């Protein structure tokens, strides 16, 4: 995170004055070029990377504040990507489709398994109000979702609160990862904490899952930090800060790109919605806009399983939804 509170406030003012339903603006070419990848990072100074990240987060902030109808689906799709990366680095084999199945194809109240709990942990980040994310009660649930015992939650919540008040958002970003490492939680929870702190710092209603998909970058930053500690500690911290900032910038651009893609798909769904005559179709459209996906047998008031399947078939034929499972049965649909 790289925005000072003053910069965040100016972004909020600018966003509030913008048209509430402005069309998604593509990321400008100069910004893509300014955000370093692993090959170009070494030649950058911390200040250069911070400037690029400030621009990337500013662009993302504009997307968040538009509060589009499809924002729920957008955040959940980002949460799914973060969960898949988390599962991979935990040595699990589940990909996005299998994680989605673990949650959507499980009956309410049944155990979704370790991989499913990872997804629920990231979905919670995107769904709960941002101001509630770092409370003791929610942190305990998040730790369990990530496979950790919910011990010393009060102390953890206090450290994260203090981290959020640090002067300089670079310090806040690095601090969230440091706290996770101190408790032995690893990089995934460091990314989760950082996303929550960013949302709170910028006054977003909900957090946007970002850094979970960039854990490989955080691993490189830790390795470079360990190597550099043998020589100059200050330089090691600079390299770590650069890697984390660049990872956040790349994640922000990826989120913006996904928002543009889902925005186009949502426009198609909304365009055909008035043509739907099935009872309960409006509920289905709302669920598709607010979530990652729906099972074709999900209960919808006033609709039979057969009627719901027919509705999805029609939406698919109209190009308004995609079938995400690739199966002939237990089919899953989403934007």
Task: Please write out the topology.
Blueprint: H1 5-16, H2 29-34, H3 46-65, H4 71-89, H5 96-104, H6 113-127, H7 136-145, H8 153-164, H9 169-182, H10 187-202, H11 215-228, H12 233-272, H13 281-290, E1 294-295, H14 305-317, E2 322-323, E3 332-334
Antiparallel strand pairs: 1-3, 2-3
Helix pairs in contact: 1-3, 3-12, 4-6, 4-12, 5-6, 6-7, 7-8, 8-9, 9-10, 9-12, 11-12
Label the overall shape.
Answer: globular
Q: What is the SS-derived class? A: mainly alpha
Low-confidence residue ranges: 1-23, 219-232
Strand order of the largest sheet: 1-3-2
Number of helices: 14
Give the total of beta strands.
3
Largest sheet: 3 strands, antiparallel
Q: Spell the H/E element sequence.
A: HHHHHHHHHHHHHEHEE
The percent range for strand residues is under 5%
Q: Radius of gyration, Cα only, in angstroms?
A: 21 Å
Q: Give the end-to-end Cα distance, rounded to a whole number of Å.
A: 29 Å
Oligomer: single chain
Q: What is the mean predicted local confidence, pLDDT?
A: 85
State the helicity in percent bands: 55-70%
- What number of structural domains do the residues give? 2
Describe this structure in words.
With 335 residues, the chain is an all-alpha fold. It folds into two domains: 5-265, no CATH class; 276-334, Arc Repressor Mutant, subunit A (Orthogonal Bundle), CATH 1.10.10. 63% of the residues lie in helices and 2% in strands. The protein has helices spanning 5-16, 29-34, 46-65, 71-89, 96-104, 113-127, 136-145, 153-164, 169-182, 187-202, 215-228, 233-272, 281-290, 305-317; strands at residues 294-295, 322-323, 332-334. A three-stranded antiparallel beta sheet has the order 1-3-2. Helix 5 crosses helix 6 and helix 11 packs antiparallel against helix 12 (233-272). The longest helix is centred in the last third of the chain and has 40 residues, at 233-272. Mean pLDDT is 85; it is low at 1-23 and 219-232. This is DUF1403 family protein. InterPro entries: DUF1403.
